[in-house]
Amino acid sequence: MCILDIGSTSAANIRYFTERGQKIYSEDLLIASTEPSLITKDDEGRSVLDCKRFLTENLTYPGGHFDVILCWNLADYLDESLVKPVIARLWSTLRPGGMLLAFFHTHEAGPDSPCYRYHIVDQDTLEMHDIEMRRDTRKGPAAVGQTSTRGGFRLQRVFNNRHIENLFRDFSSIKFFLTRDNIREVLVVR
Predict the structure, then answer these.
(1) Helices marked H in 70-138
(2) Contact (Cβ atoms closer than 8 angstroms) between residue 89 and residue 27
(3) Domain containing 94 — which CATH number?
(4) Which among 141, 111, 144, 119 is positioned nearest to 17, based on CA atoms?
(5) Distance CA 64, CA 168 (A)
(6) Rounded distance, CA 54 to CA 48, Å?
(7) What is d(CA 57, CA 173) in angstroms, rounded to the nearest whole number?
(8) Half-sphere exposure of 76 (CA within 13 A, CB side)
(9) Where are the strands (E) in the chain, listed by range?
(10) Is 68:60 a contact under the CB 8 Å cutoff?
(11) Strand 47-49 vs strand 125-130: parallel, antiparallel, or unpaired?
(12) How far is residue 168's CA from residue 170's CA, in Å, rounded to a whole number?
């Protein structure tokens, strides 16, 4: 299998899959979205992220390349302008019948809910570690900033089930599972 992990790089995940003979690619899209050079101005002079440039520089894989994509909780923390285009790109890089795993916060989660790095321990266990950004990671203006006062990524939104279904509308199947820590696990099939 060919797997794409788009969360924070995890040596544990790389080791877990390579020890089982799987090919894994790792790309931290959340950190990539904080690149200061992506910030541009819209027609009204507001700071926005350049979505086209972001997609030109990230997720540049051939169509149908991956069997599994680990999206983790990316959509909850990613800048709003990037969410739908990133999901569309993930759909195109996933082979037909391939699966994508994503986590979404429930409404009980507060705006300062920590962003986690997920480490696969074994087939039944994930370890979660808060992501603390290095001070020099985000240099952009506050208008498109994603850091909280605690130094991690700030929860941008909470998707309800209908929003999640719309986000993955091009996929053939979607299943929801309620997990601990105010998180919904979503498994979609292309």
Answers:
(1) 74-77, 80-93
(2) no
(3) 3.40.50
(4) 119
(5) 16
(6) 12
(7) 29
(8) 29
(9) 2-5, 23-26, 39-41, 47-49, 66-72, 94-105, 116-122, 125-130, 173-178, 183-189
(10) no
(11) unpaired
(12) 6
Domain span at residue 108 reads: 2-189
* Pairing of the two strands 125-130 and 116-122: antiparallel
The number of domains in the chain is 1
Residue type, 136: D
Among candidate residues 179, 168, 130, the one with its CA nearest the CA of residue 150:
130
Taking Cα atoms as reference points, which of 181, 65, 70, 159 lies closest to residue 115? 181
What digits encode the pLDDT tens for the residues 1-59? 999 999 888 999 999 999 999 999 999 999 999 999 999 998 999 999 999 999 999 99
Say what the pTM is.
Answer: 0.87
